[in-house]
Amino acid sequence: MKSGIHLNASGAGFSIQALSDAPELQFLVFLICLCVYFSILLGNLMIVTIILANPRLHIPMYILLMNLSAADIIYASNILPNLMSITVTKNNAVTFIACMTQMYIYIALTCTEVLLLEVMAYDRYVAICHPLQYVLLMSIRHCAGLAIAAWTFSFLISIGHAVLISKQSFCGSHLIDHFYCDISPLLKLTCSDTFDVEIMNYIEGVLVTFNAFVLTIVSYMFIISTILKIKSSEGRRKAFSTCSSHLTCVIIFYGTLFVLYMRPSSSYSAERDKFFSLLSGVLIPLLNPVIYSLKNQQFKIGFKNLSNKILNSSF
């Protein structure tokens, strides 16, 4: 066993390395984080507001998108405000409880997004492959039930990770070489056997991430097969446009997720994980509103109507 300071629930906390130690870069890091966080909030809140304000968008596809935007807002709020605080105050200390809570929320929201993306893929599969049964298979009630199940299951299954890691003994340096409390950098600080945590990581990875990924891929195999059978090129274009935004988000999300977590902790690289964590935790919530609204005519109409209402109420 390594010698050093042992940290547990009743002891001291940790220190967060953040993104840069260079004093001349601190203001730039803060400014970038502030702009990114503001953009994430603005973009995702705009999606939520437009969907709520437009009765025409009260359909499963947009209700699921609203849930995804809500998850993205919480996702970014769990990381960026604390990172900005560290950058400004130079106080990078974090209590044990705060660190475990941040890690738990991050894991739970990652699972939530995985399941929401899977349900969205199923929604597109039913809409394109079984359009006559869409109202029956994806009613508002079914959609709401699936969304609630995704949130509930994710926050319940993530408790296992939080409990196992909170029971670890941390020794030596208490500096987390990351910009938030995540599984891999925390395991680098422990002097306990991490076998149980890694088993939990793979079980959750297979049970949630891998199964959801496979089901999403299978859904798109059927979707693409059905689209290719459409005789008119205009019909194929319209059918593909209804799922192209979701497919783009799936590729970006799973690409970063597999790099981050589907590997043993012995291959952990701080710089690589920081980069891909930025993609997963910051870039994806930033891009989702752009990807989903850029070519969506319903959103353009909804945004125009909402803007007109705001302007008319101001005068």
Task: Give a quick rundown of the structure.
This protein is mostly helical. The protein is built from 12 helices and 3 strands.
Q: Could you characterize the architecture of this molecule?
A:
The chain has one domain: Rhodopsin 7-helix transmembrane proteins (Rhopdopsin 7-helix transmembrane proteins), CATH 1.20.1070. 74% of the residues lie in helices and 2% in strands. The chain contains twelve helices and three strands; from the N terminus they run E-H-H-H-E-H-H-H-H-E-H-H-H-H-H. A three-stranded mixed β-sheet has the order 2-1-3. Helix 4 packs antiparallel against helix 6 (140-157) and helix 4 runs antiparallel to helix 10 (233-261). The N and C termini lie far apart (70 Å). The relative contact order is 0.15.
